[in-house]
Amino acid sequence: METETGKGHFIEAIIREDIKNHKNNGRVATRFPPEPNGYLHIGHAKSICLNFGMAGKFRGKCNLRFDDSNPAKEKQVYIDSIQSTVTWLGFEFGTPYYASDYFDRLYEFALELIQKGKAYVCSLAPEEIREYRGTLTEPGKNSPYRDRSVEENLDLFARMKAGEFEEGKHTLRAKIDMASPNINLRDPIIYRVKKASHPRTGTKWCIYPMYDFTHSLSDALEGITHSLCSLEFEDHRPLYDWILDVLDTPCHPQQIEFARLNINYTVLSKRKLQKLVEEGHVDGWDDPRLPTLEGIRRRGYTPEAIRNFCDLIGVSKKDSRVDMGLLESCLRDDLNERAPRAMAVLKPLKLTIENYPQGLTETLEAANHPQKEEMGKRPLTFSREIFIEQDDFMEDPPKKFFRLGPGREVRLRYAYLVTCKEVVKDETGRVTELICTYDPATKGGNTPDGRKVKGTLHWVNAQDCLEADVRLYDRLFKDENPEQDKQDFIENLNPASLEELKGCRLEKSLDEALPEKVYQFERLGYFCLDSKAGARPVFNRTVTLKDSWAKLSG
Ligand code: ATP
Ligand code: MG
Description:
Layout: H1 10-20, E1 29-32, H2 42-57, E2 61-66, H3 76-88, E3 97-98, H4 103-115, E4 119-122, H5 126-133, H6 150-161, E5 171-174, E6 189-193, E7 207-209, H7 211-221, E8 226-230, H8 237-246, E9 254-258, E10 261-263, H9 270-278, H10 293-299, H11 303-313, E11 320-322, H12 324-338, E12 341-342, E13 344-345, E14 348-353, E15 362-367, E16 377-382, E17 385-389, E18 409-412, E19 417-425, E20 431-439, E21 456-457, E22 460-461, E23 466-473, E24 498-506, E25 518-521, E26 525-529, E27 538-543, H13 548-553
Parallel strand pairs: 1-2, 2-3, 8-9, 10-11, 12-25, 14-20, 18-21, 23-27
Antiparallel strand pairs: 4-5, 5-6, 6-7, 13-24, 14-17, 15-16, 17-22, 18-19, 19-20, 23-24, 25-26, 26-27
Helix pairs in contact: 2-11, 7-8, 11-12
This protein binds adenosine-5'-triphosphate and magnesium ion.
């Protein structure tokens, strides 16, 4: 999880320097502050790895804090999912923090601002507030309510809290500078009336603090030293600092911005992911094609692969788009080490060995990993009838086809050499069965006479194999940058992002498969049992063995 190159990225360099200078007494405290209004995606993983990574590296702490100050969109299911996802990624956060736990103290801070003449109750209607705010090129205008007395402000604010006013009637605004070139400093709203019940505080409050106010003060209350956030908050930093300068807070954390993660062939925004889910383009938030962490977890991604990916992409101030191929190659590297091998036939073709004794079943042995003896071996049964892949047979094969054809000999992995003697077809001319012979002297795949047999096929024993459905996933979007065009990004969906195969055959040992445990199906790719499968097993393709998209574009 560590960057081995020199001093690491620019944030790491800042933290090192701060420690050297005994800033914050050498202490490091970070936080990951999701709003619980949706599920986490791989972009959040970047922030999680960065915040927990820095705390881990410098023996500091990292808080998981729910930024739950907007009750309208926040739900307990998201809170639960976020916690389990952070844990799954391999990070420990102890007890989570909630911005809503600070509502009383935030209210006190608002009173302090009013008393210091730095906040006022504004009674402009929402559209008037917008109008008065000005634009990027024109300064704003002062609200006519800007000079209310402290007493009047305290009275109105108390009545806002008491529920006397409807939503939108009054707001509490910081008194900063309506002519500031930075719009965030044009008397931003810090409290609004919202008559909504909150998942944690119920109906205790009918005013809720706004993001910037909540966020800066929550950081300060938790003693955060480095508040790491994505670049879009750069323009908010002056407000973050203004709030902490004006108020008497325990400390003043340093906000540092970094570039968000973007990945090609997908979208990383809760709003867009929500549209995909709500319009039914995917099968829920944990659809294995989505970049949500719940989705890629169901697909078979490992936390190690994700952490390694986040480490490789690094942290910088420059926005960029990372190739999906990089994420997939991190996954392949990890799975190649970790995944036990197994055999499965996705499109079965029956193969009968006519000279193999009727009723005999042999038990062969197969290594679970070709390079890792410690992963052990498993028994593999073999008998007269097996299944091979339809694609591994051609009736009229070209020269370079090293698989099975009439009269040709191939090796069956871990078993024997077989030669195709006869092709059985149905009335439509479709090949339904191959009749072969085997050479009993070739057990284990060896040729005692040294004859060369190039092709090796995977197979399963017809007698005891499992029947399963297999889902082949591909990229969700056919366009490298789905958001590029002005039209709806939905139009760029890849119509072939899911192929469902029925009646696949798997070797018997896979009846012990568990969700999230990934196998390499030899010659086919990496697969794992779907966590939502019912009585009939369903396997998801986690990733292919090779990057087929690289070939297409290269
Ligand atoms: P979205 O835009 O997808 O809705 P968000 O920024 O609203 O995401 P939050 O719940 O506010 O989501 O995010 C929590 C933290 O995760 C924030 O600090 C945010 O900067 C960070 N984060 C969100 N998306 C990314 C991303 N793509 N890359 C890096 N960090 C991200
Ligand atoms: Mg947000």
